[in-house]
Amino acid sequence: MSRRREIIDIYELKVLHAVVTERSITRAADKLNQSQSQVSVALRRLRTIAGDPILVRGKRKMVPTEYGLQLYEAADFALREIQFIAHLQHEFDPGHSRRIYRVGCPDCISTTFVPRLVALFRDAAPHATLECSSAGLTFDYESALQRGELDVVIGSWTSKSAQLRRVPLFEDDTVCVVSDDHPFARSSPVSLDGYVSARHLVSMSEDSHHRHLVEQVLQRAGKARNVVATIHADLAPYVLVSSDLVLTTSRFSAARYVQFQRLAIVRAPARFGRVSYFQWWHERSASSKEVRWLRDLIAKVSHSLFEASVHA
C-alpha cells in the first residue's frame, strides 16, 4: 500500500525559499516577519516530508544540501507562478506595484537605452524594482524567459521557438569610430576596400551583434580585416584617440564614445547595413498585465530614441 503524500502549503514554500536564500533561520524569520519558532516548526515539517535536512551547518554558516537546492529551485518557480496568479485577480496599477521586473539587454545599446528606461520606470512604478542584466550574442535568452528569470529580452536574435513572441523596437546603424585626425574622419561613408586596408580594433564584449554582421559581410565578399587588438569595450575610446585604428560598433555605442574623447563617427561601408532589435517575451507571460506594461514602457523608450536619432 502506497504512503499518502504530505501536502506542502504556500507558507512552507515561503519558509523553504527564505531559509535557503538567507542561510539562516533568524534572518529568514525576519524576512518573513515571523517568529523563529514558527519558522523552525515549518522547517522541521519540511525536513520530515522531504526526508532531507535541507539546510546543514557549514564552517561559518548554514549551507543547503544538494536536495535542498533542488527543492529551492522548485519552490522559487512555484512562488513566481503563485504571484502571477495573485496579480491576475486585480486591476494592475504600476504606481502600487511592488514586483521585481527583469529585463535582458545587450551591452551595445544598454548605455543609451537603460538610463531612459530606468527614469521612466522610477516615475511610473516608485515601489517596484527593475533589474537589467547583460544579454550578449551567446546568452541563452530562451531558457531565461521560459524559466521566468527574465520578463523581457531586448535583442537582435532570431528564434524558431513557437513559445516566444516578439515585436520590433528599432534599427541601429553600424558605424566606424576613429580619432578625429584619422583619414576616415574626412571620408564618409568608408568604402569596403578602404575598410579592409585599415587596421582595426575589436571590442570583445560590447559589439557582438555588429561584429557578427561585419564578419558575415566580409566572408561573403571573400575579404578579411586586419585586427590589431581585441579589448574590453570601455577601453576602446582611450585606445582610438591616440592611434590609427578603426572600431566598428553600433551608433548607440559610438555616441557615448565621442562624448569623452576627440573621436569621429563615420558611416561604415553600405554593405554592413543595420541591425534590427526586438523585444522578446515568453508565451507564459503573454497575458500578464505587469509584463505587458513593461513592454509598453520599453516601446516608449525605443520610440523616444528613434525620434532623437532622426533629429540628431
UniProtKB/TrEMBL annotation:
Family per similarity comment: Belongs to the LysR transcriptional regulatory family.
Ranges where the HTH lysR-type domain occurs: 8-65
PANTHER family referenced in this protein's UniProt entry, alphabetically: HTH-TYPE TRANSCRIPTIONAL REGULATOR LEUO-RELATED (PTHR30118), TRANSCRIPTIONAL REGULATORY PROTEIN (PTHR30118:SF15)
A GO term for molecular function: DNA binding
Record-given protein name: PCP degradation transcriptional activation protein
One matching Pfam family: HTH_1
InterPro entries, sorted: LysR-type_TF, LysR_HTH_N, LysR_subst-bd, WH-like_DNA-bd_sf, WH_DNA-bd_sf
Superkingdom classification of source: Bacteria
Claim: Membrane is one of the keywords in the record: no
Keywords linked to the UniProt accession: DNA-binding, Transcription, Transcription regulation
PROSITE patterns: HTH_LYSR
